[in-house]
Design a protein that fits this description.
The structure is a homotrimer. The first copy, chain A, is built from 15 helices and 9 strands. Chain A is α/β, with parallel strands linked by helices and about 375 residues long.
């Protein structure tokens, strides 16, 4: 129980403004806000382990809108809202279309009369996902302010074109747990590296989320990718500013080996170049099936040129003491298991497998914490009641 | 709180027999029954706004069977049963087929061992939907009476070929709220008018439900539609009788302008002619794909002849003071937004948009009230406990 | 209430080790374990009838994985976990594929951070279903033991290639209710007989489950099937041993009439020959669509040779007093209703229809009892608290 009370005391010292707020991007939030979400997540996880109840709702719905497939995040959201006392309802309507404007505004209100939370995953189209989340948020805010809705549903970003905050905060909680404290992360080197995958079109939100979160905590963040596999430029600018602020650093290289050298943490993960994702969005809007097929072929061929971007045992030997922590959002493309050549060697993955499970295990509680902090004005007080 | 207690006192004066009953058609119910459902709905909504609990079940399932697509009604049902304390389970089995007889009888019991409520939407086939609901109701009644089921699941009509009671009662609650009382509705003119839509095959249950509900409350109900867009004859006869009884009126015209003139309320909404819906059902049963395509083309061409049946600003100027209340069950076909030409002009819809949201906002509570009244013998007493 | 207390006293006398265990096969369990599950099921059903609460969880998920279609079992599982206090989440990921190994291991953990129960149906492929369930069980056991999961999700077999324990225990509970006691079953003859069906590929788990359960309780079990419609050999060996142990008997015949003669209970039900199911699995793995079509044609033709294996009125006259109890897991192929020629004559089925509903009505409580016994160390004590 001391572990919980230590965190409660830390939480009480923070100055955060999460009450009645949506959670869409880590970089819109102060470091205190981020720490608050993570502390609440840790406390909820401990309460769960102790089989204590942390329900804050007597009834109400949580709605998930998945415009891209998901198993891990879907079940994390389902778990989080169940623990908080909400019923889950999934909205499929917009799954296969890019809907905007009037329709979104109306539907968002129609489904929200007893809704406390809306979780959205919309990560495939640069310029679309975050915009869509804002539209939904604005629509229910209007509904609430005009008295149509008795409560304002909290929006939670379950992965957008820009950020994947429930993932990156889970990754960071794993680092805190592994290295012992937030202080211990200062000056630690993390290599966020592109890695080869035989698939195509993976979203950019994980690397963008990692470089913009770890730079807030004084880490030395190295982003590595082959020429052309650019992230969205505004996310790079943001990461640079954060690094300066936190007295960490942010550098970019075009070699996995350079990134791995002396790294404390490695995060080898495939993504599609921003330009490809933008082209793909255009082709999808035009319904150009042939164009999409051609683009996929082109990209898979491009990817193949970088098949050596794999997190092998040799690559791991370059890291600090040869035993940097391996992180991944899962599922990883594991060479010899899920594909012939992938992001990571089988033996490397196997060694860190349970670490990646633990990393994923924070996610339900991070989601629950975002909702908790938005709904409960004095989170620490409420959490004390559960202890 | 006075608002709640006023309604509780009104509820206590009513003589209603909803206990242990299904809710399939408003016209099977006394005016007292209808008022009871609406009063309970208002009270539940107020309890929700005050963040008070109105749970009546410790556990149990509510099953929804949607044989036609739905977002608004689906989420209204999900919300209602969540608030009442039930878990939601959706039955997809019969989605794409017209199943009858033995299969229905057996399946209805197989899914009902812990089921308190079954909500059904089956609105596309004249002569089918209501019949199907009765079959399910009879099946679980047999199961209950023979001791197979420990409780009798309550059937709730979420839209049939005949009626859409959860919608029409929500529409009526909006009128009561807008004009101040049920008394105030007496002598008010409502224009239930066909309107042009570029789609085809919309069900008849909304206009049938409206003319048979508003005539119970002393309103002057005018039904307007182009020649040939007939409703089911028995629903017209019923509306005439109700109008006589309530000292309101029921008239039919074949001009939108005539209907709108001096109207206090307008409800412009597209539907398919009964004869078309019947023909469509036959073709579906025969699996005649070409016949269905031909019918659709024919109907869309017919519809186009009446493209001037649109709720425009000019049309609205004909109404009482030029500012009749606009009602719609949503989604509306809005000209210039969801289609080039539709049921309503963009500027008209936008002016009444939040009114239509509020109208829709009654629906979860109307559904909950139907269940509440069927399960709780002394509804008013139970509701007092929640205050 | 005496009925409940009698069962509680009986339960307290049993020596069972169900705590923290999965429920995959009846034949892995002692007779005391089986009796305990059935007694708990009966008690839970009585509590439900008395509208008493039997919730044991404050929150948590129950996950169902249906790799074959299901309505009855799906709703039984949904009902059981709802009554116990869990939220339901369905995992579709593996529906259409035979997934193994790493993927299963990882996904099982990823969905289980707040999961108390995983129910799996995987009955179509000999050698696959049970293996898959063990893999999932091993994966979450590893997760629990290594501290990744705060609780060990209990696996419940909702039908495998080997056994269908939630069905067979419901069938047995019906027999106990019908004949009055477990003692009364000793020496009663049950005919588990193949029956003709115009469909193809029905799983073997029901007959395998029946012969291996009823032989535990001293019944005279006769398995009847046309030459070639063999069950898995290991399940036959097991049934023989059980019959010896319980002083019942187990015999095989190739005539429905021989099996029915003087039977107290008949269970006429179609299944596919083991060899066909194995061949089908190979063809599915190879993706050989033509091979699958050919196999289906071959099997339907083979089935037709045995169209006289129907539970007719004449066949029923052969049974003890002409009125053996008819059992079926439902849905039955009823001649003249669901097909021209099927497993059972319409008049026979109709006479026993409500009996089959009651038989099915035990299933939600059998599932709940398996979970209850796995989660609660002293089940009887906990159940007393609910009375």
């Amino acid at each position: 129980m001391n572990e919980i009370y230590n965190r409660l005391r830390e939480l009480e010292k923070l100055s955060c403004n999460l009450y009645n707020k949506d959670f869409l991007l880590t970089w819109e939030n102060s470091v205190d806000n981020l720490k608050a979400v993570m502390l609440i997540a840790e406390i909820l996880q401990m309460l769960h382990t102790q089989k204590k109840v942390w329900r804050i709702f007597d009834y109400g719905l949580a709605i998930s809108i998945f415009r891209d497939n998901s198993t891990r995040t879907r079940f994390s959201f389902a778990s989080a809202v169940n623990g908080l006392g909400l019923g889950l309802a999934e909205l499929d309507e917009f799954k296969s279309q890019i809907a905007h404007g009037e329709t979104v505004r109306e539907t968002a209100n129609m489904i929200s009369f007893l809704t406390e939370v809306i979780g959205i995953r919309d990560d495939m189209y640069p310029g679309e996902g975050h915009t869509y989340m804002k539209e939904v948020a604005d629509a229910v805010a209007e509904g609430y302010e005009s008295g149509i809705l008795a409560q304002r549903p909290t929006l939670v970003n379950l992965q957008s074109d820009l950020d994947h905050p429930t993932q990156s905060l889970s990754d960071l909680l794993k680092l805190k747990d592994y290295f012992g404290s937030w202080e211990a992360l200062k000056g630690k080197k993390i290599a966020m590296s592109w890695a080869y995958s035989p698939s195509y079109g993976k979203p950019l939100s994980v690397p963008q989320g990692i470089i913009n979160l770890m730079t807030r905590f004084g880490m030395d963040v190295v982003l590595a990718y082959p020429e052309g596999y650019d992230l969205l430029p505004e996310t790079l600018d943001c990461a640079k500013a954060f690094a300066t602020e936190s007295e960490g650093s942010f550098t970019q290289v075009h070699s996995m080996a350079d990134a791995f050298r002396d790294a404390d943490v490695v995060y080898p993960k495939s993504w599609a170049p921003m330009a490809v994702m933008q082209r793909r969005t255009e082709l999808l809007k035009q319904g150009d099936q042939q164009g999409l097929k051609d683009l996929e072929q082109y990209c898979l061929a491009e990817n193949k040129k970088h098949i050596d971007w794999e997190c092998t045992e040799d690559m791991m030997k370059l890291t600090k003491g040869g035993n940097a922590l391996y992180e991944h959002c899962l599922p990883a493309d594991i060479s010899g298991i899920s594909c012939t050549h992938g992001e990571v060697a089988k033996s490397v993955f196997e060694r860190y497998r349970l670490h990646t499970y633990q990393e994923a295990g924070f996610k339900p509680f991070v989601i629950a914490a975002m909702i908790f902090a938005s709904k409960i004005k004095d989170s620490a007080k409420k959490l004390r009641d559960f202890c």
